[in-house]
Amino acid sequence: MSLYAYLSIDTSLPLNRIAGLSFGYNCLAGEILMDWLQLAVFLIVVILLVKPVGLYIGKVLDPNERTFLDCVLKPIEKCIYRCSGIEPHHEQNWKEYLFSLLGFSLISTIFVYVLLAVQYYLPLNPQKFAAPSWHLNLNTSLSFMTNTNWQSYGGESTYSYLSQMVALVVQNFVSAAVGLAVAAALVRGIARHASHTIGNFWADLVRICLYLLLPISIVAATLFIANGVPQNFQSYVKAQTLEGTTQLIAQGPIASQEAIKLLGTNGGGYTNANSAHPYENPTPLANFIQLLLIFLIPTGQIYYFGKSVKDTRHGWCIFAALAVVFVLGVWVCSHCETVGNPQMEQLGLTGGNWEGKEQRFGIFGSALYACVTTVVSCGAVNCCHDSLTPMGGFIPMLNIQLSEVIFGGVGAGLYSVLLFVFLAIFVSGLIIGRTPEYLGKKIESFDIKMTMLALLPFVLVVHALTCWGVFSDWGLKGLGNTGPHGFSEILYAFSSCAANNGSAFAGLSANTPAYNLTLAVAMTLGRFLVIAPIIALAGSFARKKMHPKNAGSFPVSSFVFISLLIGVILLVGALTFLPALTMGPIIEQFFMLKGVLSS
After folding, report:
1. What's the pTM?
2. Which of 147, 215, 354, 515 is deepest in the core (most CB within 10 A)?
């Protein structure tokens, strides 16, 4: 989606014609300029929203603070507490908080599984969809509970309106709220001192859903409806095509699911084509709103953290480090897609790599969306990642393999980047020969153990399951390609699920018992083997006493800290996944440049 697409009347025209009609030129330099101007506009809007969103998140996560929605939502909140027996002011220690979270997640999974299993007998099923297979049902239930939203199915051909709304959309709200609640617990642990409690999970869950996710989703859904996204309960429409065949056009409550899918960084599409479908993403303005929704909470929560620990400069330094890595990824991905396959140029076919992309979004718009959705662990897509050039696909895969660090998902991004901050501070302490200290609290052996326990499972799960898939018949049978690209399809799938991202290369046929079960294992372990050490870290930091800063304290609001954090993020990512990436997209890039068909 180039900037000139916003200003042109007919966005279905080829991009070079749009450029000619709107600006009077179609040269490559002009297109590149407008592409980067689009990125600049997007980043400026994001930066302008960081502080107000962060301040509002802080008010939502503090039950003693008032919000401008209290007059409407406070009675509803109190009613929920009375009906469910929640004592919002009764705080929990880290073990109680963790057990509450695990119990809620288990009940959520069972609820979704049962509802999907009996959908044929329930209302709002005009297409009379039958229950999915047991292994697909289990995969879907765990996928939406873990905020992964991996889809081994086509939404418009598998699940009823009731299943989409009551099972999947509800999980879009609560799974995102669980992630932000975990981040809030860690932030409280860092901000408090000599405390044995880190908040109340149930109160956090209710307030996040009620005051944060629901109001913004209503506004976003209204904007999507205004842009042409359907929101109805009609039966699917049969249309006669120009070729004389019959086409079945899906209907349903799409706008409401679209809003929370993006805001909650869930990514599960109502349709199989996700945000490349004109019903889910009909206009350039809708596409821009989607990008903003994906970044809204992940960027705002960084300011919330800085405000909570009384060091907003430190929060902005973390934001700056992540923004640098993000922009670098966008540049590499868009450059590779703009250059395209040099072998095509020898045939006289120039203009970049258009395969798998919607013409109305353009090459840069597709690359930008691919980077946004993978750095933020959203999983929504507006192009086919399987059709990206080898190094163009390398960037989204690397984004995922950096463990939701670059802004990341709702809540998950904040607690993941703080793990890397702890690691960076620990490294700095080793360099200068002092006990590492962060925001007035010493980082001790237990904290480093919990940090590594939170970081290592993702790496182990991805590598172990990828190896199993590559050397097994069930893994190879699902491939859409062979050679390095086939390896990339398997690696991407397990990376996406273990990181709770949910996007796919789309060349892998994953709706089989083996893939549904192994991917479900990756999603579950990737979620809870990280959350448990994070909650333990929150309890550890909350119990610590504050120490005044001294000359030996590492400055966490400086260019040195930004550089160190970027270095640790890239170094850890390179050390853990570079060998696997070499076997996939990197070697495939060399094959492409040499004109060799891999097999």
Report:
1. 0.90
2. 147
